[in-house]
Structures are given as C-alpha cells and as structure tokens.
Amino acid sequence: MLRILLGEPPRVNSGVLAEAMEHMAEFASLLRKEMNRYEDRDHEFRKLEIWTRGLIVSLDELEQSWFAAAFYRKSVKAGYMDDMSVAEQGEYARYVYFYKNGFIRVFSLLDKLGTVLNSLYDLNTSRVKTHFSYFTVLREFHTHKEHTVLADQLENIKNSYREPLQNLRKRRNAEIHYMNAEMQDDLWQRHQGLHDKIQLEDLDSHLEDLKQGLEMVCKSLEAVYKYSTEHWPKNIGKS
C-alpha cells in the first residue's frame, strides 16, 4: 500500500520475508482444513487461524514502515536541524514517523507471536506474568522441555540480534514512557552546549537497527510456523 502511495512498484516478497509469509500462509491453510475435518466446537483452530492471518498483516505493515522510513531518509541531506529547509524538515518528519512506527511494530509483533506460542503449546505463561511479552514466553518455553529444538532455535535467533534489539527497545521505551525517541539526542546535545546547533541522530545506523529487527522477526516467524506445521498435530493438545 505505502509503495503505491510513494510511487514505487509493488513489493515482490523474497528472502526471509517470503519464507515467513509462506510458512504462515501454509499453517493458516492447515488450520482451515482442520476446521473442515472437525467441527471445532471450542473455536481453537479458528482462533489460531485469525491470529496467524493477523501476524501476516502485521509483518506486511512492519516491512512497509521500514521501507517508507528508508524512502524518506534519502531526502534528508543536512546534518543539523538548523540547516534544513522547510521541505527537508517535512521529509525528516515523515522519516521519523515511519521509523518510530517501525520499531514499535517490531515488539508489538513479537508479543503477538508470543501469544500464539503460549496458546499453541499450552505454556500458560500468565501464571508467571499476567501481561507477558514474547521474551517471557520464550523463557517459559524452555522450562517445558517438550519442544527444545524450536525453543533453542528461537533463543539463537534472539541472541543473534541482541544489539539491534537492545537499541530498538531503548528507543521504544523512551518513545512510550518518557519522550519522543528522536529528541533524546537533542536533549543530550543541549546539555553539552545550550546554543550549539542540534546535530541529527545517525539515521543510517537507526535504519539498520530497524532492518535487523525486521529480519529477526521474519526468522522467528519462519521458525515457529515451519516447526508447527511439520509437527502438527503433536503440538496442540486438542488434536
């Protein structure tokens, strides 16, 4: 959708994004077949199918946010806020909007995946923490020791992206709980010199963190849905 608005051709899925999308679609199709085979009176299959299709939409929105942020970043040439023209300030504002939208979506999507894992593998994570995150679910997954192959794979993926995830988490927390994430550097610079020009944050480094976050999400989704499809129906008590 955003590519059309930006005058760009539609996305052609490839790489880890395509793999994640394909495995999620395959699992949703499997759930639909199970609903046709059984009456699904407790709507467990239907619930998992809706959640899975929701994750497909969420992944699409995350990728679009990263793409749009990268698109508008190309128009930001000045290194200081004071040196920007009015038009460039507008492009920078649009970059910031989609960049922030992206890093918030990274953790939102992971938490949704955690909800799917919790339900699919009967982890009952709410006993540990009422409002749990993906990372809480991951820790709980390890304690069950029934699907160690998947649990280890997800843990390895998380550890491989530790640094960019930490960077994104800090900005997400600042954005939600304290101040606009892009203003943190402005505040620090004001402490150094009240009348100095405000230098922009490292846009390329921030975009790379978001790209790495997107890759981490794709690989995690691919791992969960590939494993769950291959091990169906052993992974859900109802089956």
TrEMBL record:
InterPro entries: cNMP-bd_dom, HEPN_Cthe2314. Residues 55-114 form the Cyclic nucleotide-binding domain. It comes from Paenibacillus agri. This is Cyclic nucleotide-binding domain-containing protein.
